[in-house]
Amino acid sequence: MAGEPHEAAASGGLPQLDFSTWPSQIFWLVVSFGALYFILSRLALPKIAETLQARQDQIAGDLDLAGEFEQKAKEAEEAYNAALASARAEARKIADKTQAEIKTQMDAAMAEADARIEARATESTTRIAAIRDDARAQATTVAEDIAGALIAKLGPAGGVDASAISGAVSTEIERRFGG
Amino acid sequence: MADKEGGIHIDPMSQFLIKPLFGKEGAAVELFSYTNSSLWMTLIVVVGGLLFVVGASGRAVVPTRLQSVTEVLYDFVRKMVRENAGEDGMKYFPIIFTLFTFIIFANVLGLIPYSFTVTSHLAVTATLALGVFVTVTAIGFMKHGAHFLSFFVPKDCPAPLLILLVPIEIISYFVRPISHSIRLGANMLAGHAVLKVFAGFVAPLYIGGALPLGMMVGIYGLEVLVAVLQAYIFTVLTCIYLNDALHMH
Question: Above 0.85 for ipTM, yes or no?
Answer without folding.
Answer: yes
